[in-house]
Amino acid sequence: RSVGIGRAHAKAILLGEHAVVYGAPALALPIPQLAVTASAGWSSHTADGPGELSYTMTGTPSRALVTQASDGLHRLIAEFRRREGVTGGPHLEVLLDSAIPHGRGLGSSAASSRAIVLALADLFGRELTEDAAFELVQTAENMAHGRASGVDARAVGAAAPLLFQQGRTEALAVGWDGLFIVADSGTAGSTKEAVQMLREGFGRHPGAQERFVGRATELTWTARQALAEGKPEELGARLTDYHDLMRAAGLSTNTIDTLVEGALWAGALGAKITGGGLGGCVIALARPERARQVTRQLHEAGAVQTWVVPLKGLDNHA
Ligand code: MEV
Question: What sequence ranges are listed for the domain GHMP kinase C-terminal (predicted)?
């Protein structure tokens, strides 16, 4: 084959971010309409020509984040070649076409990595198991994020909302057909910095890690139950509680808080920051009949882009 194609999508964490790094459970939502496609082929350059990676971004990536991510992606390509025994040979060229904005907690780095892994597997005609693809994505994620829990690497390939804990996943039972509205604040935050900041804070304050992880775990399990039993108010309230937990830990920003307040004011059942934090996106839960108002208010409060993700019927897009 002369060209291999791979595709992955964005994700949003419903609850559990940061705590998941310490072994707690997390709930994640695939965002199928926000995707990245990688194409891998043979470069006309020689091996000492430019690197094995070119970007075409349809989003607006920040240069620093792209550079940070691309170190991981170079490692990923090298690791794929090593594991699959395809060292040497002509120079590879990988093109990424991504609609996922960087640094917004939407899993752009994991999605890019997964798309590349699948493109390389396609090019070399290799069948990769889900676990093998996951491990390869994690080699790049660990470079981009320090120590990544793996929730992003799993969620960017998932067809339906999932529960993640310590590398394992399970499809979430969904007993209600509400909508999530994801709103981009327009400012990037570094997951690596956020994870490091939290770790340092835990180091300075004895018991803080246990309190954070304990509270996060309690909220995540309650939300999971509410989702399964179709109790939207309960689910919404736990999302907002999780926002308060993240804010108290210093992971939110004024812009993000304004978006959360705007969404709640417009009738969202709950709203919170999503992902690593220090910028990025807000996720709001709304009844279908309220979604337009919530979306409008999010834009008025400063959101630069929004995406509506229905809880049910996600598997139709897989
Ligand atoms: C990023 O989407 C989620 C974090 O918990 C980091 C991780 O799980 O590796 C902040």
Answer: 224-302
Which pair of structure tokens corresponds to residue 217? 């775990």
Cα separation, 181 vs 259, in Å, equals 11
Q: Ligand 1 centre from 251 Cα, in Å?
A: 12
Ligand 1 pocket test target in 9, 15, 18, 220 with most atoms within 8 Å of CB: 18
Please classify residue 130 by burial: count the beta carbons closer than 10 Å to its beta carbon, then call 0-12 exposed, 13-18 middle and 19+ buried. Answer: exposed
In 10 A of CB 214, how many CB atoms?
13
CA-CA distance, 301 to 288, in Å (whole number)?
20
The series of mean pLDDT values per 10 residues for the chain, 318 residues long, is 94 98 97 93 62 61 55 83 80 84 91 94 94 93 86 96 95 93 95 95 97 98 97 98 98 98 98 97 97 98 96 58
Interface pTM, i.e. ipTM: 0.98
Ligand 1 in reach of 148 Cβ (< 6 A): yes
**CA 105 remoteness from chain centre:** 5
Rg (CA), the chain: 19
pLDDT of residue 71: 75
Which SS3 state, helix, strand or coil, does residue 273 take?
Answer: strand
Q: With beta carbons less than 8 A apart as the criterion, state whether 126 and 153 touch.
A: no
Q: Which domains does the chain have, with CATH numbers?
A: 3-169 (3.30.230.10), 174-317 (3.30.70.890)
Write the CA distances from 295 to 22, 266, 299, integer angstroms: 33, 9, 6
Q: Is 57 helix (H, G, I), strand (E, B) or coil?
A: strand
Residue 118 CA to ligand 1 center (angstroms) comes to: 22
CA 256/CA 249 separation, integer angstroms: 14
DSSP E strands, 46-113: 53-57, 92-98
pLDDT of residue 316: 42
Would the CA dihedral through 196, 166, 227, 310 be positive or negative? positive
